[in-house]
Structure prediction request, 292 residues.
Amino acid sequence: MSVPVSWLEPDVSIEQGTLYVVATPIGNLADISQRALDTLAGVACIAAEDTRHTARLLAHFGIATPQLSLHEHNEEARAAELVRRLQAGDSIALVSDAGTPLISDPGYRLVREARAAGLAVVPVPGPSALVAALSVSGLPTDRFAFEGFPAPRAMARRRQFEALRAESRTLVFYESSHRVAASLADMCAIFGDTREAVVARELTKAFEQVQAGTLAELVDWLAADANRERGEFVIMVAGQRVEPGMADEGEARRVLALLLAELPVKTATRLAAELLDQPRNALYDLALSMKK
Ligand code: SAM
Prediction:
């Protein structure tokens, strides 16, 4: 039996000495929540990834709260300063340029230090490209692995994909317009032409597109129109299908790890297939990824 959601009366009280981690829109300004607006208007100060960018958001909603910058290059020094302000009783909101702070965005060090100092850290949840993309992908979402941005350099990126080849959860990547074509091509080469995937582009914006297909089809789709390479992307790749009889990946990994410590990949795979009574193909891919 499902438990009914227990709603609270809207609560926008701002507590002293509290760090609010506030999600902001990823494109469509209508996605800002009332609680985010009230929090941004009510805190003593907003720590923003780029104060000029956030100034436009604040101006749009008529909010005049002072800002200071917190980005990857000053986070160490700023975190200590902000923790001191929180300890002195100030309330502070943390925002990034778009979406949820800390999701491939700055703020980790500040949140960690605030929590270590025993301060209250409160989420004001809202948009994130990761969840928005998954929610419309049509790929399995019961389990997924968020991999952030693929490495910018080809060699490192391919190694990263190799290590994920046998992953059975849906894989989610962020990608920029500069590298989306190269990343998709590498995914196609490593995960295979026929692996199902979805490209979500410019979510919540004027040119939003969500395109599903095999990786080979998506490489062609992207190349067919130069405009499709513009903007911001989430790439989702279906996990490796678990073959019938290959239900317990944990057990397969344990047996393969023991065999691979002593034997070459092929022999280890053959013995593991016999021991586990499972098909060789999927075990071979798993063994290869473990060896790497
Ligand atoms: N913190 C943000 C979030 O919660 O989604 C992500 C910040 S990360 C620096 C920026 C990346 O997120 C972009 O390069 C893109 O991969 C993805 N992204 C952000 N907005 C997007 C959008 N509107 N549509 C598709 N992807 C988006």
Observations:
- The chain has a mean pLDDT of 94.
